[in-house]
Amino acid sequence: MPSAPAAPPEDRRSPFIRLADLLAGIAPGRQPLSAAVGEPQHAMPDFVGPALNSNLAGFGRYPRAEGAPTFRAAAARWLAQRYHLARPLDAEREVLALNGSREGLFSAAIVARRLADPAKGAGGSPAMLLPNPFYAAYAAGAEAAGCEAVVVPTTKESGWLPDLDALDPQLLQRTVAIYIASPANPQGAIASPDYLGRALELARRYGAFLFSDECYSEIYLGAEKPAGILEVAGGDLSRALAFNSLSKRSSLPGLRCGFCAGDPAFLKDFLAFRWVAAPQVPEPLQAVAVAALEDETHVTASRDLYKAKFDLADRMLAGRFGYVRPGGGFFLWLDVSHLAGDGMTGGEAAAVKLWREEGLRTVPGGYLARRDFAGDNPCGDFLRVALVQDIPTCEEVLRRLVAAL
């Protein structure tokens, strides 16, 4: 697979900044309603206030870069309970606190580049592979690390996951890290254990790190829990890193507390980097995270709400926009190619139409992706819609969507 062309400047801006520019000067046709940001709006768990209040003294201390021992131990316990791990994790060596998974996914790229074989730059720039579309932090991290951010197609034919068999060996030779997400953002595809195992084997064969973004791991819409990279790694966690947070699992996006777990050699260098360059997580917030990780009741209740919202989507969007119920996550990924024209992609035209006629804010799919190796943006004719509010509000989102499109 050839490298993608250099991304034009507008592709490097936040999708939400680009959306604001797209809709600037257009009055909303109805009372504004946003389905643009993937920010969970479910009720805050009852334990948050008491856990915070009982640990307020922690705001008077600088937190440690690796995270409090209690938090790292809670994360290790949760991982052992959630996944079929070959062995328990060593919380001291194999778990680090993050200021949310986004920060970790960004800064881990810098550490991966430092640890990479110098030969990775031979025959071209060192590269990091990203699924297309992708979470913007992946590309930002790759480019901050001085690597080429190479987008890898995800299509309906490939199950909305990168086709591992299509990766060019020459590209893999210069690859420093491979980003994957399961459930995928935004398509909601879930990688099988076999797929994850093949991805890790590929990373190890070519001396790359595998960064597995698992922040949607607890929002699955069927009976089967998504697999994680640490369980397919077995007892040897080399090259395998899992990133997770409390934002999606516990509907606490403002907590900014997550963790990275896996390869202890990588985490040793990651911690050294974090001591001088990364934001720490205040101890009281880590205490809330411990309480969240030790409670599954609120997670089950939240997951049931997401399932109910997609039950609504199943009824209201049946036969429309290529809708298929995703395996996980909370996004609709809709084909609106019929609206393309007048210099706009289908996604842009749909976003403008929904705002102008229904006051509904959504994100053009092309703003979440980059041009591929052929010079095309494969997501331009898609639209992303977040079902993050309560059920009545999400029903209204769906009504407005159908009315306008």
| Proportion of strand residues | 5-15%
Which ranges are low-confidence, i.e. pLDDT below 50, for 5 or more consecutive residues?
1-5
Largest sheet: 7 strands, mixed
The chain-level mean pLDDT equals 95
**Principal-axes shape call:** globular
Percentage of residues in helical conformation: 25-40%
Counting DSSP H or I runs of 4 or more residues, the number of helices is 14
**Rg:** 21 Å
Count of beta strands: 12
Termini separation (Å)?
A: 36 Å
Q: What are the secondary-structure elements, in order, as H or E?
A: HEHHEHEHEHEHEHEHEHHHEHEEEH
Query: Structural class of the secondary elements?
Result: alpha/beta
Task: Give the spatial strand order of the biggest sheet.
Answer: 2-8-7-6-5-3-4
Structure characterization notes:
The chain is of the alpha/beta class. Helices cover 38% and strands 14% of the residues. The protein has 14 helices and twelve strands. It has helices at residues 15-23, 48-53, 69-82, 101-115, 136-144, 169-173, 193-205, 229-233, 246-249, 264-277, 283-293, 297-316, 346-358, 391-404, and strands at 33-34, 95-98, 127-132, 148-153, 175-181, 209-213, 240-245, 258-262, 331-335, 360-361, 363-364, 382-386. It has a seven-stranded mixed sheet with strand order 2-8-7-6-5-3-4, with helices on both faces. Strands 9-12-11 form a three-stranded antiparallel sheet. Helix 3 packs parallel to helix 11 (283-293) and helix 4 packs across helix 10. Mean pLDDT is 95; it is low at 1-5.
